[in-house]
Every structure is written in C-alpha cells, then in structure tokens.
Design brief:
This protein is α/β, with parallel strands linked by helices and about 260 residues long. It is built from seven helices and nine strands.
Length: about 260
C-alpha cells in the first residue's frame, strides 16, 4: 500500500543503527563540503540520544574519512533542544556532543552555541537562544526566520522530537524560534527549537532506530495528521528537505515502499 509523503521528504531503511549513523555522517560530510565550496559557513543543530552518539564517534574516529575530510573550521554547531541540567551533567545534550565530537576534534569554542542552562530560568534561556540564532544567522528582524543548513533530529517512542512532546503547547508555536517547555511525563523543564525554526531549515535529518519506535514511526509517516499526539508530524510542514534514516526494526510496521540498503 502506497502512502504519499510530503514534498521534499524521503525515507530510507537501513539494516542497522550503525548503517543509520554512517549514512548520516556521509550526509553531513556532503553538505559541509558543499557549503565550504560555496564560501558559506555550515550551520547545523545537533540532537541527543544513542544514535547521535554513534554518529559523533564516527565523525571523530581516526579510522574514517570524516575526521579529515569535513571542513570543521567552517561549521557552526547549535542544539535542537537541551535538558534543564548543567552542561557537565550526564543527561546534557551539550555534554554528549562535547565528549564525543567537540573535544576529540578540537572544535573551537567560538563555533559552538550551547543552550544556557544555569544562571537564568528556562524562559530567559529560550529568549537568549533566539537572540543567538538571529545574531549568528544574521536575521535580526522579527519578520525573518533564520535558516539552519541542517538539523539532526531523533524521535521518541511516543512520537516526540527535539523537546516537542505530545500534548505540549510548543508543538503549535510558530512565532518564537526557541521556547521553554515543561514536560509533565518527565517532570522536567527543557528548552527546544520550535516548529517554526525546524520547518525553516534547509535540511532535516531524522535518525530513528529500534523496534520500540515502530508503532509511532508508522503513525508519524503514514497516519492521520495529529501533531498533538505525534509531534514529529510537524515536519510534514517543512519548507526544506526532510530525510528519514530508519533501521529495519523501527521500519517494521511501515506499509509504504521505501528504498532499503
């Protein structure tokens, strides 16, 4: 049974989580080199999670081409969301990237833009991150939306992405660039990029692995549009290219025909 996808959306089924991460690394390399060749900086927003960790390890490894072939000095790093913990906390998305990507590669601090999680409340942190996005991406007017070159996203088994969780108002936020959100199921505060920012990116790359995510992935890609239940569906409204890299376990319930490798 065929299910039409939104324009600019592609789904690829890989045999393993490693295959998902390696293909994501190749995607990153291609876009980073393209931006450098065009004399443009490459602006990317990172995600947290086990598959992104695998991606970071691949990019930083001495045994792959990525460490030497990516023009690292031309890349600016942002974050799709952050848990409300200090940057040295094990749950911090910044710490994950710092431990497995930034420090192994010697990425200059001036090229990394973390979401602030100490010394301010979450609402002020979100306001500051919006200012950062506007300043660094040179979109200082309220009517302009900064365009990230690439946003890495994951998807939870409840269909959430970044910190857009089911039933949270931020799922419908198309005015701010970043927002504070309280997640009742986790009893936790977070700061996240909003649908406005995510849908304005030139490229969005989802990495989804594991059988536990198969039911939600089926609904997100092929189900009725209901982002209050499955927030990852907001990317159906993307103005750019959305690529889903999913392993065979996560893809087990999909009914459409998608390329496999």
């Amino acid at each position: 049974m065929e299910h039409p996808l939104a324009p600019g959306t592609r789904v690829y089924i890989k045999q393993s989580a490693h295959g998902v991460a390696y293909t994501a690394a190749e995607f990153f390399l291609r876009l980073a080199k393209q931006a450098a060749a065009e004399g443009q900086r490459f602006r990317v927003a990172l995600s947290g999670g086990s598959t992104p960790k695998m991606l970071y390890e691949l990019l930083a490894s001495d045994t792959n081409i990525f460490r030497t072939d990516v023009p690292w000095g031309n890349v600016d790093f942002f974050f799709g969301d952050e848990r409300w913990v200090p940057h040295d906390h094990p749950d911090s998305n910044y710490k994950l990237a710092d431990d497995f990507l930034f420090r192994p590669l010697g990425i200059a601090e001036v090229n990394v833009y973390p979401i602030r999680t100490t010394g301010v409340d979450s609402d002020e942190s979100a306001r500051q991150y919006e200012t950062t996005l506007r300043d660094v991406l040179d979109t200082r007017h309220d009517g302009e939306v900064p365009e990230l070159d690439l946003v890495f996203l994951g998807m939870g088994d409840d269909g959430h992405t970044a910190s857009l969780f089911p039933g949270t108002d931020v799922v419908h936020d198309n005015e701010r660039l970043a927002a504070a959100v309280y997640v009742p199921k986790l009893s936790a505060n977070r700061v996240t990029l909003t649908p406005l920012t995510l849908n304005s990116a030139a490229h969005v790359l989802f990495m989804v692995t594991g059988a536990a995510k198969a039911p939600a992935l089926r609904e997100v890609l092929e189900g009725t549009y209901d982002p209050d239940r499955f927030p990852s569906q907001v990317l159906r409204n993307s103005l750019g290219q959305v690529t889903w890299l999913v392993d065979k376990d996560a893809a087990a319930r999909l009914q459409g025909r998608y390329p496999q490798a």
